[in-house]
Design brief:
The structure is a homodimer. The first copy, chain A, starts with a strand and ends with a strand. In chain A, the strands form 3 sheets. In chain A, strands 3, 4, 5, 6, 7, 14 and 15 form a 7-stranded mixed β-sheet that branches. Chain A has a 6-stranded parallel β-sheet with strand order 10-9-8-11-12-13, with helices on both faces. Chain A is an alpha/beta fold and about 325 residues long. The radius of gyration of chain A is 20 Å and the shape is globular. In chain A, helix 7 (about 265) links the parallel strand 12 and strand 13. Chain A is built from 9 helices and 15 strands. Helices cover about 25% and strands about 25% of the residues of chain A. The model of chain A has no long low-confidence stretch (mean pLDDT about 95). Chain A has 2 domains: about 5-125 and about 300-330, Quinone Oxidoreductase, Chain A, domain 1, CATH 3.90.180; about 125-280, NAD(P)-binding Rossmann-like Domain (Rossmann fold, 3-Layer(aba) Sandwich). Chains A and B meet through helix 7 and strand 13 of A and helix 7 and strand 13 of B. Strand 13 of chain A pairs antiparallel with strand 13 (about 270-275) of chain B.
Chain lengths: ~325, ~325
């Protein structure tokens, strides 16, 4: 078996995560037990939830000191103990920050590379990104035709899909909130958003009021904090706020800043809706087929930011939290 | 016409409202214009929303410097310009802090004193208290039989009804959160709550976990702040949090403390539901009939705290905010 290169957690970050919180180590690749496969990790998905695993408890899973860091990935089976998985099969799963992952077959999903390239299964066709966007907009936000939809973190992996899905489901006006003029331009010129608001350039509440004069019917929040508060001030009656994430708070989960304007939910007959995609397994097939159709017909634009080399994993996580990526952020491991 | 005694706002409170923020004045009662009635105010309803009107803007209506303070009341028509309202009729409406109110007939609701005593129309049969409890539990929380329901401000006017309504609609377990052992005892011995948690005596999160070991399915929040955060930590999957009020925040509306545990809404597939009773006019008749039936059959227990004398209006408002009342808080004006 090849050696396994691993990024391991050296210290729980105190506040902002630092490159020094990780170590690069080399180890033997584990021997397979029955029901396991060994996967060569080709790409890792750099997602905001990774930050929440580093605190030693909390919102999602947890990374242990000296252990690899949770991350979703796509890779190629190099050894198998299960007849359903052959050497050479491309699979997704919780690969973590390493070059070879030994996984139970139940944690692996075989992907159909005829349908889309492997990295699409970490983005537009992944459960945590594409299927989340589709199911959340269709079955949680329940968009009615013509409504005004706002997405925060709109240039990110989930946000860039969620805004496009909203439009494809019939939204009347789609507005993205993102950081900086480049991302805002990306939203309106490349992804077909109707407008973009730069949260780094002035009063988001006022700028959103200009862009959504009749109020916001659906808000898809990936960010939390000040951005959530600004949108709450602009809710239309019967608005739905879908809580997908809160990346602005993930470096401070012990003391999250709650939305101080949450009483607008009461005042406007609105609702704040949580959802985890894992409660909607009966929608996966429909979501995958629809997203793949939109992707292959060119209706859904996908943009990827690529970082290369496993040793860049800590820098990639830091970069994601600093808003450095546009679209899906991938780390090419090999 | 008799003289009109009025409590007027002298200064917008800075933080906690003080008795010195009000003045008592005597004035001529206005002459009636067509379409108006003059009502002798018999009882005023002392409600938490009154505090929010004193800041000169904000959540509900607004009290002006030198003007009377918004408050709902019940009284007797002493002069009328409208054939539909006769002298002697008992009516409810936005009487405000005064002994005689001149109101447009459209703002008055004639009450059926055969159905219940006049003060019931400020409590169990009022839109803002009783109908809110019924419609909110039935059509917003949508209680399923057997669920665990938690109510904050449970010994207050809305809370004491909301908990009882939940039980009458089939809740499996009703838990009240209130301040102090007397109120907690009141809930369990007089109102039929299954358990009570004293938020002034220790860790609400832990005590609620004991009382609701399978999690909270419905939370009716009148309080906000720490209490809301404690309940969010105990949500069951698919829980509904109904936002009815946030009395802990009403003295600090410029800087509300948002719920820092709001991400539990996402994690637990839960929702936070705002509602204003005025969006449910088609449910008023059903709610009134049902509440009156429960009231007259003894299934719904109503408790009133009575203060006497219009000059006690400021002290009553201060007392309400300090949690001094049990059940409906009324001021007898005459």
């Amino acid at each position: 078996m090849p050696k396994n290169r691993k990024v391991v957690l050296k210290s729980h970050p105190q506040g902002p995560v630092r490159l020094e919180d990780f170590d690069m180590v080399e180890d033997e690749t584990e021997a397979l037990r029955p029901g396991q496969v060994c996967v060569r990790v080709d790409h890792l998905s750099i997602d905001a939830f990774i930050r929440t695993t580093l605190d030693g408890g909390g919102f999602h899973q947890s990374a242990k000191l000296g252990g690899v860091v949770p991350a979703l990935g796509v890779g190629t089976v190099v050894e198998s103990t299960d007849a359903a998985f052959a050497v050479g099969d491309v699979v997704t799963g919780p690969m973590c920050s390493q070059s070879y992952a030994v996984l139970p077959v139940a944690a692996c999903g075989k992907v159909d590379t005829q349908l889309a390239p492997p990295t699409a299964f970490l983005g537009a066709l992944s459960i945590a990104t594409g299927l989340t966007s589709y199911v959340g907009m269709k079955y949680v936000a329940k968009i009615h035709g013509g409504e005004t939809v706002v997405v925060s973190g709109a240039a990110g992996a989930v946000g860039s899909l969620a805004g496009q899905v909203a439009r494809l489901l019939g939204a009347g006006r789609v507005i993205g909130i993102a950081g900086g003029p480049d991302k805002c331009r990306f939203l309106t010129t490349q992804l077909g958003f109707d407008a973009a608001v730069d949260y780094k350039a002035g009063d988001v509440t006022a700028k959103l009021a200009e862009q959504a004069p009749n109020g916001v019917d659906v808000f898809w929040d990936n960010v939390g904090g000040d951005v959530l508060d600004a949108v709450l001030m602009n809710l239309a009656v019967e608005a739905r706020v879908v809580l997908c994430g809160a990346v602005s708070q993930y470096e401070n989960m012990a003391n999250v800043r709650g939305p101080k304007n949450y009483l607008k939910i009461a005042e406007r007959d609105a609702s704040m809706l949580g959802f985890t995609i894992f409660h909607y397994p009966d929608r996966y097939a429909e979501a995958t087929a629809t997203m793949a159709g939109w992707l292959n017909s060119g209706k859904l634009i996908v943009h990827e930011t690529l970082e290369v080399g496993l040793d860049r994993f800590p820098a990639a996580v830091r970069g994601l939290l600093d808003g450095g990526n546009t679209g899906k952020f991938l780390l090419k491991v090999g």
